[in-house]
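Good day; I would like, with your permission, to put a structural problem before you. What I wish to show you is a protein chain and, alongside it, a tokenised description of its three-dimensional fold. I would ask you to consider whether the tokens describe a fold that such a sequence might reasonably adopt. You will find the record immediately after this paragraph:
***
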Amino acid sequence: MSALRHSVYTSTRISAIADTLNQRCDEIALALLGPPEKHQSNGREMRWYPDGKLRLQLSGSKRGKWENYATGEYGDILDLIELVRGGDRDAAVQWATDFFDGSTFEPAALPARAKSVTLVPSADSAERSARALEIFDRAEQFPGSLAQTYMERRIGAPAPVEILENADFRFDPDGAWYVNDVNGGRVIRLPTMLALMRDVRTGEPRALHRTALAPDGAGNKGKAVLPDNSSPKKILGPRAACAIMLSASEDITYGLGICEGIETGASIIARFGWRPVWACGDAGGIRTFPRLAGLDCLTIFADHDEAHYRPSGEVYYPGQDAAKACMARLVGEGLPEVIYCLPPIAGADWNDMAARAAA
């Protein structure tokens, strides 16, 4: 990677932050790149792309170091964030701050020389929110668009009325996506489904969830396949304590359901007739979902993820672990009732279960 550009952080602090993030590199890489190649990954390393050309090391002193054998690029986990997300070093630190909910990393997870590092939201959070809203404001209406076609194909049912009438969903026919493959870093244009992410306490729009769509709405379950095989789902803006409010907040009278993906939430509403529902974007959003004033019951529609392995050999399950952590925390905070709903089939979410039931 290139040398560090001018930054608001000192080189010593950047190094300490990188060391801190390297300890949780598997979580970050999964968010940036999606699931790795199963048959080429193990407890020592994770690999992406069919030929395993991008390798992330998980063990020893090289934990968090990665290399792309096709392009010759390499670096630490901050470099990977820069490469995939675009932007500079400060933007990479800010993205990590948002990803981990803007909080201090637990001391047990920190290497000795980084124990004083605290990642705090920077002043440009408002700027990134403004950029997200500007993209959203320029977009087209959701009803009748390719985004509606995509959603209905994914859930196998007409889009729920509350989504068709929901001003938080739009369609960008010419969405900008940064990719970095053998042809170098560049921006490509793809049709994109947009959904606002609002602060769950105040209702303020803060971030934008984007899904890149295949131009014909088919293949890869309707999502686009990006040239660098990066995830076709990205979030722009500070997303801590935010959710995609598929159901209106005024529809919440006693309880609320939360899930990871938009498609899962839409399926829960359309196929199971269960509402109100909000989508948190991913397992991290489930894990950190806060207690809401006046809410007496929270139902967590967890993804039934297959086993993942830490460098130590410890098994973990991202979807289930996040849901259980959320449940334990909210019960400890006094929420009267938390219900944990897990699909009975490994590797499935509730949208998959609805499709199986209809088959």
Q: What stands out?
A: The domain at 246-359 is CATH 3.40.1360 (Dna Topoisomerase Vi A Subunit; Chain: A, domain 2).
